[in-house]
Amino acid sequence: MAHSPHAGRITAVLGPTNTGKTHYAIERMLAHRTGIIGLPLRLLAREVYDRIVKLRGPSVVALVTGEERIVPERAQYWVCTVEAMPEGMGADFLAIDEIQLCADPERGHIFTDRLLHAQGLHETLFMGSDTMRNAIAALVPTAQFLRRERFSTLTYTGSKKISRMPGRAAIVGFSVDNLYAIAELLRRTKGGAAVVMGALSPRTRNAQVEMYQNGDVDFLVATDAIGMGLNLDVTHVAFSALQKFDGQRMRPLQADELAQIAGRAGRHMTHGTFGVTGEAPEIDPAVAEAIQEHQFQPVRKLQWRNSRMEFGSVARLIGALEKKTDNPWFTRVRESDDLAALKALAEDAETRARASDGQSVRLLWDVCRVPDFRGISRGEHAALLRDLYSFLHERGSIPQDWFARQVKRIDRPEGDIDTLSKRLAYIRTWTYVAQRRGWVNDESHWRGETRAVEDRLSDALHSALTQRFVDRRTSVLLRRLKQKEGLVADVNDKGEVTVGGEFVGRLEGFRFRMDKTGSPDEAKTLRAASVQALAPQFHLRADRFYNAPDTEFDFTEQGGLMWGTDAVGKLVAGDDPMKPQVVAFVDDEAGTEVAQKVQRRLQHFIDRKVASLYEPMLNMLKDEALTGLAKGFAFRLSEGFGVVPRGEVAQEVKELDQDARGALRKHGVRFGQFTIFMPLLLKPAPTRLRLVLWSLAQKLDEFPEAPPPGLVTVPAEKGAAPGYFAMAGYRAAGARAIRIDMLERLADMLRDKDTRGGFEATADMLSITGMTLEQFADLMQGLGYKAERGERVKVKPQAADVALESTSGEPEEVPAETPSEHPAEAPQEVPAEAPSEAPAEAPVEAPVPSDDSASAEAEAPEMEVFYTFAWGGRQQQQRGGKPARPAGDKPRGKGKPKGKGGKPQQGGKGGQRFEARPPKEKKIDPDNPFAAALSGFKTK
What we know:
With 940 residues, the chain is of the alpha/beta class. It is built from 30 helices and 36 strands.
């Protein structure tokens, strides 16, 4: 096997629970200069880390798990989960705990790999059940064996009702619903219980265990998570069920699994008992005897997966992971989550294209090993991994703003037990990602940030569990009320309020949020005691709030007003849409002086925010040089918060003379073909505020959110409030909405196109919209064009070298607006004499094969889809205001078109395109609502 014959001593320390195996391993490790110990649970790793830190100090002890990494510079002793153990360090000592997990269907292959390949330079220990003796002897022939006997006896006592359960007992169940029901019953009959589940964070678990250990509650309700490493003062373990769901099916627990859990009863020299309760049947006498005597069937098969990866390609990596073994001791592990994720991503074309070399395949495998802490479907998990891989492969790291949004979305310590448990599972994903070296920028910040979020959620979950399953606080407070005349209330710097030493609620901004209370009498007593302490706190907070800088405040997309993470008010509509009013959230007990101070400060904030973000528009309204129609149009534009669809103001625009338009242009107003707008107000911050102000003015119950910044198009969702897309800076057309400034760039490109005779989309048009040809066709139909689909022979690359060269680079910058001094000249119509049957692009003739060619029959030509667009009139328009006539259409004037027939021009892709030379015409005002028509239409 992989263990070197020259390696140090290898010892298997085997025996039942409560034999001090882990304690022995810690002693042996500290006898060496360096060491690594691998443990099965993150919870247990933290517990062992804390023990070693107490003995040797934090400067020489490292903790490495999937979600936590504490590595001092002079680290000598490494405490890790088995999956996170660093390889190739060459430590003097190495130990693996619970080695019998080699047989575990889900994680066994990791433990088997460590058994075969992990070793210390001087000493190696494998600790676990005696059932592994034969397997270790066969696979590690040089191993010596050390048998450890249990310190105390373990006795089966049969079935007991929960109401008659002795104190210092742990009741074990295998479903959350079952655990909650038992804990509720214990709350009513015994005063409460601590709850321990595998999904809890170490912080929550420790808080619950501490509550049990210090005697606040006398009972523990737990899953089989207590079966490994939790050192508790439990004297009796009662099983509420003898079967569990293993991820695929319900199955009975094996005798050694029951023993692992039952063995938690009786610590060190204290004897323990075990039995059943509730609806669980009696344990079979033979099984009960085996548990008492610690005699179980030996492990015959270890889970195995090939650990020699091949990163040449995704297919080779999958093949390596699925490699079979002929070793009779091994059974190949069932498809694990990481392999399932790899297969799912391998089916994604984009991911497959990215993973084209060894380094990229290795990165893909690292991403696939991100655990599915969230427990969602494999499809959703694969989608998340695909995003992570795309970021890492394309950018080298995960974008900080994207990562921050994921963390912030979870950072909400409110909700019930299930909600908080789910958020804790979600934050574990981001904690894990932050721990990967090089995946995020500013690693130390995000490791601390995700840890802080987990701690907040952990504390909230502990509080929720205690609130629901323990009435200790009520009994303590009411007992103290009977003994004393009053209660002492305190407020700490986090706003947490305690009465008589018991947590009763917290200050959120200027509102006191009481913790849920057990009875109306208690609520009344606690509120009175709390408010007495809060009176000075409210005034101190109000002073600090009033002097805080604007950077500490923000508004939400629903019109809320925030001070840091606290909601302190909301916006309401005022007489002027640009001057929203403020309603402050302040408790009555704080008094009118505090309420007025908070309201004034918030009003200052929002007034300055509007003035700052809408400075161009407000300056325009104040400009005394604007008079008459120009002044009126400025007010009309301000009513639209700087964005107005042109169809809604066509008549007003028509009435503006050149001087008026020039005056408005000086303030940044752009007269686009589809929209009149101020480009500076399309930035993300003004847009976000505009949607809030508009929603207030429209009196909407739920405010629509701004699209993510930077997107050229977004889905045009049905059911959006009328006017929403314009306020968001978009125009709906077909299935998507396009940003209005990019739409104007597209309109500029259409000016010289034959919109009556038909034209094809150019590469620049597709480039600025970021669309496929099919999506672009839908967009054009939404803008009022007809789109005719066709197919033709695809031109060979060599015949299109010129076209490729002209489109292969970056798209050229299109001017934001055609200057009024140089209006686009209208192209002439193709004269009637032009051959109508001439195609827009003539196909290149296929070469004729020679008679002696090996392939006598030419292959079928490759076809390509193309669209021809032509103006469809008003009936074609799908959404938005009245349609503007396209700039490229032919103007309707008197007389026949001037100039000679169209001269053939060399078109793209080797074909010919027939276009008319543009005649020289009189300059036309491009801002006239009919400029589009005048610049493109002519009568025949």
